[in-house]
Amino acid sequence: MEIFDCVIVGAGPAGLNASLVLGRARRNVALIDNGTNRNRVTQLSHGFVTRDGIKPEEFKDIALEELKNYPSVQFFQETVTQIQKRSDQTLFQVRTQDEKLYIAEKIILAAGLTEVHPSVPDLKTFYGKSIFSCPYCDGWELRDQPLIVVAEQEKGVHHMAKLVYNWSRDLVVATNGNQISAHLKNELEYRNIVVVTEPIKKLHGEDGYLQAVEFASELKMKRIGGFIVPEFHRPNSFAEQLGCEFKEKGVMVMDGLGRTTQKNVYSAGEFSQVSPSALILAAADGSNAAFAVNADITNERF
Ligand SMILES: Cc1cc2nc3c(=O)[nH]c(=O)nc-3n(C[C@H](O)[C@H](O)[C@H](O)COP(=O)(O)OP(=O)(O)OC[C@H]3O[C@@H](n4cnc5c(N)ncnc54)[C@H](O)[C@@H]3O)c2cc1C
Fold it and tell me: Are 107 and 242 in contact (CB under 8 A)?
């Protein structure tokens, strides 16, 4: 059975860039991905120089095409279900949903994050088209428009409202049935931001493009887009199963070069740390982890 220098779980920008660097360093790589990247719902991605306004699927296609220049990198469309140390304790065994096995010396975990959204009916229809979670990614397109910020916790309300205010001052903040402190409410209202604490009953619009937001009392407000504050979770417990250590709030303990606290286990992109989230940061992180993998292999084998 082929022994890979490295199995990379996840072909988002982190895993793709890690593959590119390792391919160019002549390492055997299995890059495994199941197409569940959280940005797949969005129409266009912004803020990656030379790629501003690119479709997420086009970004991935270009990257996979470039990887074909490096035959030691193989791409597999599969779902990884388990990663464990083999009994010899030197190699890892990666199992997929189809019961395929990949054996590797090193692992890069680059499986991204999943999101839990505020419980607003039909939000999925609008998410990625006119409602987003990152103003740096999509604020420009919504500048100066009547917007809504949906955030259910005090901290999220404060953070997102303050940020989005930079792109539009025509703002409604909806807490979707949750209370916020009088202090925060006053702070927002002082800036003419309307605060609505009743639950959202319905989002009105066409083809994912928001036109109005209706609240439980049937109050209806014209809004053409907005931002939500999701909760973020790692999509699996591979890092825990492999014994990686965590700091508070689930942040992985890393050495700044993608090395986790477990020998031969590396991590890159949002999988290691929720924020800040951007394609270019994840790609850079993947590059960093690949340098660490290659440096370690070089030192071990020279
Ligand atoms: C709606 C939306 C819009 C966004 N817009 C922008 C933007 O305009 N600009 C920008 O810079 N950023 C944007 N982002 C953020 C950006 O998508 C992330 O920062 C970036 O994709 C993180 O890269 P990553 O490689 O860490 O993870 P991801 O891109 O999420 O990649 C992780 C990969 O791992 C794979 N995976 C997960 N589990 C498994 C498994 N068990 N087996 C196999 N494969 C697995 C997934 O299929 C996925 O492809 C947006 C995000 C969202 C949700």
Answer: yes
Q: What is the pLDDT of residues 79-116, one digit of tens each?
A: 999 999 998 889 999 999 999 999 999 999 999 999 99
Residue that terminates a domain, selected from 179, 207, 228: 228
What's the rounded Cα separation, in Å, for the pair 206 and 214? Answer: 15
Q: Above 80 in pLDDT, residue 275?
A: no
- pLDDT above 90: residue 212: yes
**Cα 53 to Cα 6: distance, rounded to the nearest angstrom:** 32
60 pocket-lining for ligand 1 (C-beta < 6 Å): no
- Ligand 1 atom 51, closest CA: 39
Phi/psi at 17 (5° precision): -70, -35
Angstrom distance (rounded) from CA 109 to CA 149 = 32
Q: Residue 46 CA: which ligand 1 atom is closest?
A: 8
Q: Which atom of ligand 1 is nearest to the CA of 16?
A: 25
Together in a domain, 182 and 140? yes
Tell me which residue range forms the domain holding 274.
Answer: 3-113+234-301
Read off the pLDDT of each residue in 269-296 and give the average, rounded to a whole number. 94
Instruction: List the CATH number of the domain containing 183.
Output: 3.50.50.60
- The mean of the pLDDT values for the chain is 96
The response to whether residue 9 sits with its C-beta less than 6 Å from ligand 1 reads: yes
Statement to judge: residues 46 and 81 lie in one domain: yes
pLDDT at 19: 99
In this structure, the answer to whether residues 224 and 121 fall within a common structural domain is: yes
* Closest Cα to atom 4 of ligand 1: 39
